Amino acid sequence: MTRVLVAYGTRFGSTREIASAIVHELNSGGLDAQAAEASGSLNPDNYDAFVIGSPLYGSKWLSTAGMCAAVMSEHIEGKPVALFSIGTTGVADPEAGEAEHKEFIGGLTEVAPKLNIVSDAVFNGYFERSNLPWYLRIIDRFAPTPQGDHRDWSAIHAWAKSLVPKLTAK
Ligand SMILES: Cc1cc2nc3c(=O)[nH]c(=O)nc-3n(C[C@H](O)[C@H](O)[C@H](O)COP(=O)(O)O)c2cc1C
After folding, report:
1. For 52-89, what is each residue's pLDDT tens digit?
2. What is d(CA 153, CA 168) in angstroms, rounded to the nearest whole number?
3. CATH (domain of 84)
4. Confidence check: pLDDT of 5 > 80
5. How far is the CA of 85 from the centre of ligand 1 (A)?
6. Which of 37, 62, 86 most suits a substitution to test ligand 1, by most atoms within 8 Å of the C-beta?
7. What range defines the domain where residue 24 resides?
8. For residue 47, what pLDDT is reported?
9. CB 68 within 8 A of CB 39
């Protein structure tokens, strides 16, 4: 059975719930997936395929998830990898959200050219204004991000389902 690691970064927990949904869908498709918070202690040798994701903060992934992808790329010998970003830029402007994600993935592939990326996607996240530091709350007043849970669970499940054949060990 194909063993899949779904490694995620999170600050406030919304990406953890997305990682759980992805695991659920992959397991329903016959894979053996498990989620773990991205860290240097994950052993890529225990897995045949990877899904790695992070929320965007200041247009970048959390460093734990970015480092995890970059470091693992050196040890996974072309095993398939799917990447996802979570953010709220796309709530008001889907093209801008997609562009922010693509920009980050482009930078990641420059530092980790060995990643065998079979799919990548960006999904809207959960925006809680009180999580902003005070100086960002002032900036946010001028172009307010819509508050609340913007996660599109059917899109997340559909993407995870589409990964099953791409991640399945040959
Ligand atoms: C301080 C701060 C900065 C953020 N920066 C971005 C950003 O640059 N782009 C984006 O799309 N979303 C941004 N977001 C939205 C988060 O990515 C979103 O809330 C996400 O769901 C948080 O995931 P988590 O709960 O797993 O930490 C930001 C949120 C906060 C609080």
Report:
1. 999 999 999 999 999 999 999 999 989 999 999 999 99
2. 23
3. 3.40.50.360
4. yes
5. 10
6. 86
7. 3-167
8. 97
9. yes
Spatial neighbors of 129 by CB under 8 A, at least 6 apart, are: 137, 140, 145, 147
Ligand 1 geometric centre to CA of 10 (Å): 9
Q: How many domains would you assign to the chain?
A: 1
Give the nearest ligand 1 atom to 126 CA. 21
Ligand 1 centroid to Cα of residue 55, in Å, is 6
- 79 phi, psi to nearest 5 deg: -60, 150
| pLDDT at 143 > cutoff 80 | no
The first and second tokens of residue 4, run together, are 């899949």
Residue 140: predicted pLDDT:
82
Task: Name all residues whose Cβ lies below 6 A of ligand 1.
Answer: 10-15, 55-59, 86-89, 97, 100, 125-127, 131-132, 136
| Nearest residue to 122 (alpha-carbon basis) of 140, 137, 102, 138 | 102
Beta-sheet strands, E only, within the chain = 3-8, 32-37, 49-57, 60-61, 80-87, 116-124, 126-127, 148-149
Query: Which of 45, 77, 58, 64 minimizes the C-alpha distance to 7?
Result: 64
In the reported structure, the alpha carbon of residue 165 is separated from the centroid of ligand 1 by a whole-number distance in angstroms of 30
